[in-house]
Each structure stands twice: as C-alpha cells, then as structure tokens.
Write a structure and sequence with these properties.
Layout (H helix, E strand, L loop, with lengths): L12 H18 L5 E8 L6 E9 L4 E6 L12 H15 L6 E7 L2 E2 L4 E2 H9 L7 E7 L4 E5 L6 H10 L1
Parallel strand pairs: 3-4, 4-7
Antiparallel strand pairs: 1-2, 2-3, 5-6, 7-8
Length: 167
C-alpha cells in the first residue's frame, strides 16, 4: 500500500511521534527534569475549561512540553504548511494554559540545504507573531541526541519587520 505522507523507513507516523516523545523525555531526564507522558491539564480562553493532553509534562514543577518531529516536505524541501498548522495549534494551547507553567515546544532539527535554515528557524521567521510570550522553542538533533534552545524572543521590531518581508 502506497503511503505518500508517511515518513520513509518508519512503521507509521504515530510510531515516529511516540519515539520522538521518548527521545525528548530522555533528553530532559538527562538534564534532571523528569517528565511524564500524556499530561492532562484544563485549558481554555474563558471560564470554560477542558482537559488537554500535552505530550510531556510535570505537574509538580509546572512544566508542559509539546513535541513535533516534522521535516521539510520531500523531495524539494518545500514548506510543510499543514504540519506547521499543528505547531500553531500547539502555540494556541500554550496560550490557553493557566499562567505559571513553563511551556516548551520541542522540535526535530531538520535543515534545508535549499533554504539555508532549519524548519524551526523558518517557523520563527514566519510565525513569531503566534508564539506566546514565555514559550521556549528547543531544537533536537537526533544524530547527536542533544538539543539547543533557540533564542527568538530577542528579535527587535526591525528584525521582525525584516522577517515578515522575507516570508
């Protein structure tokens, strides 16, 4: 059966996502932050709240993590627009979360030679206006099993305007 939207070499996209969540959990555990899978908390914009399951979290330390292992669209490193919509949805859930939580978006490092930037760098450039204040964006390098926090909140207004023109 032909599965054009499935990651090459994977059993299923669900397996890819779960494996990435486990890699994130292991990375943070190595840094001294024990996180559980599928942590549910009530979220909402108004007084009405509904439970949402974050990929990882720790209720005691008030940490929430969303994991995204998306890549540029093959074979031409096109922008995976539908997948970035899911990133925007994660940002909305972070926004709808009660104050006081540390909010981490943990994404796969995927570099585009054609575009000369990673998918996370592109997301910051194109969608920084949708990233709530205080959200941390971490980029995970599978080959090195390491991650770095991207510094995007340091954009000046001039940088933001320049980035908007490039999109």
């Amino acid at each position: 059966m032909d599965k054009p939207h499935q990651r090459i070499g994977s059993k299923s996209n669900a397996h890819v996502g779960r494996d990435f969540e486990l890699a994130a959990q292991s990375f943070f555990a190595d840094k001294g932050l024990a996180l559980e899978l599928n942590v549910k908390i009530p979220v909402g914009i108004s007084k009405i709240k509904k439970d949402h399951a974050f990929d990882l979290g720790c209720l005691d330390k008030k940490v929430l993590v969303e994991c995204k292992s998306h890549k540029w669209t093959a074979p031409n490193d096109n922008v995976p627009s539908a997948k970035l919509t899911v990133w925007n949805e994660a940002m909305y859930y972070f926004l709808a979360t009660s104050p006081g939580y540390r909010k981490i978006m943990f994404v796969l490092l995927d570099y585009s030679e054609k575009r000369k930037e990673t998918l996370a760098e592109y997301y910051i450039r194109a969608y920084s206006h949708l990233i709530p204040e205080g959200v941390e964006l971490w980029e995970y390098d599978e080959s090195k099993m390491s991650a770095v926090q991207l510094a995007f909140n340091k954009f000046s207004q001039q940088d933001a305007q320049k980035a908007a023109r490039l999109c």
